[in-house]
Amino acid sequence: MGQTATTEAMPIWGSDAQPALLYCLFYDAHARTASAIAERFGLTRQQVSTEARRLLAAGIIRQEVVGRNKVLAIVDDHPAITALRTLVDLTVGPLVDLKHLYAVDGVERVLVFGSWARRHLGEPGSTPRDVDVLVVGTPDDYAVTSVCLDLSGQYGVEVSPMIVGRDEFATRGCNPILDQITSGPLVEVPSGHNHLLAI
Asked: What is the pTM of this model?
């Protein structure tokens, strides 16, 4: 079932189809054709194809024929890829959708860790198989899990929350699992609706 793209107001994009297309090529191993991307985000195939042609002309993505399908892929060594990934992540995906967790009473901070965080920060590697989320505060476990389950269905990969208290998060050396998590990349999910840089 297709999901409508949830996007922030980003005036650099010509349409919702462009960040949706790039998001799939960055993170969704199953949505690599115009039809699959359109279905994934509730767009028309024509919308996706139009944006794909623009990105192909710019050398940002490439197209390969696999059987009867035209499969799209990111050109990893394009000089704009790291910046584009950051902009896409600020427009659609976990950094946007995980803001719903701030509506749960007791949630103080939300951070993404693991492979998704490493890809977001530009570390090369395979498509993340899950989105690991660190929730700081004293929320109801069921409410947090419910939000993450909804997003798991939307993304097609597991969104896995770990809840820790504020003091536990601030005090290193007491929880080996938390220490390991916080020693790696952490990407904070902004709580506000407008987290773009002021001009």
From this structure: 0.70
The CATH class that applies to domain 94-188 reads alpha beta
pLDDT in tens, 152-180: 887 778 999 999 999 999 887 788 999 99
User: CA 111 to CA 116: how far, in whole Å?
Assistant: 11
CA distances from 95 to 38, 57, 60, 113, 136 (A): 21, 29, 23, 12, 16
Domain ranges of the chain: 17-89, 94-188
